[in-house]
Amino acid sequence: MLNSLSDLARQSLAALRVLLVLTVVLGIAYPVVVWGVAQPLGDRAAGQPVRVDGQVVGSRLIGQSFEGQEWFHSRPSANDHDTLASAPSNLGPLNEDLLATIDERRSTVAATESVPEADVPADAVTASGSGLDPHISPAYAGLQVDRVARARGLDAERVRELVEAHTEGRFLGIHGEPVVNVLELNVALDRASR
């Protein structure tokens, strides 16, 4: 019995030493090294905040909702752009609730933009997987140009130029589709309206 107690004590001390070493290495040293390596990247390591007059108005990487006729609208979000609840709806493509939601969104966008429902692009009615996508397609941005120009009292061609200036091409020229960052476009739109 004495041997088993001393063995147990020895094993417990070894486990405690491993716990302490791993806590220091993985809980302190590793995060400090990652933080240190990221510092030269500046804002890229801080979530790429977008600033207006020195104030952070959002992140280039996280979508947010814009209400009102004077703004370009983001794509729908299954979680109302809540970063703590980042997730899709998990409804399958044949789910009746999802199809009804998409039909309702399509009707709303068509009425808001004064276009036929057939002209409403897919990203105007479907949420991204994370619910936090900061981008819309150039087609959806183009669909909104006339409404935004009218609401802002700007020439539609000037607003169209802003959309083109904020359209990002395919990654490395081959991956993905061209996109428009809604927050950055709305910030530029606000500056052009002053």
From TrEMBL:
Organism of this sequence: Aeromicrobium phoceense
Keyword rRNA processing: no
PANTHER family: POTASSIUM-TRANSPORTING ATPASE C CHAIN, POTASSIUM-TRANSPORTING ATPASE KDPC SUBUNIT
Pfam family name, one: KdpC
Principal localisation: membrane
GO molecular function: ATP binding; P-type potassium transmembrane transporter activity
InterPro entries named in the record: KdpC
Name of the molecule in the record: Potassium-transporting ATPase KdpC subunit
Keywords assigned: ATP-binding, Cell membrane, Ion transport, Membrane, Nucleotide-binding, Potassium, Potassium transport, Transmembrane, Transmembrane helix, Transport
Primary role: Part of the high-affinity ATP-driven potassium transport (or Kdp) system, which catalyzes the hydrolysis of ATP coupled with the electrogenic transport of potassium into the cytoplasm. This subunit acts as a catalytic chaperone that increases the ATP-binding affinity of the ATP-hydrolyzing subunit KdpB by the formation of a transient KdpB/KdpC/ATP ternary complex.
Transmembrane feature ranges: 12-38
Phylogenetic classification of the source organism: Bacteria, Bacillati, Actinomycetota, Actinomycetes, Propionibacteriales
Membrane topology type: Single-pass membrane protein
Binding partners and assembly: The system is composed of three essential subunits: KdpA, KdpB and KdpC.
HAMAP family: KdpC
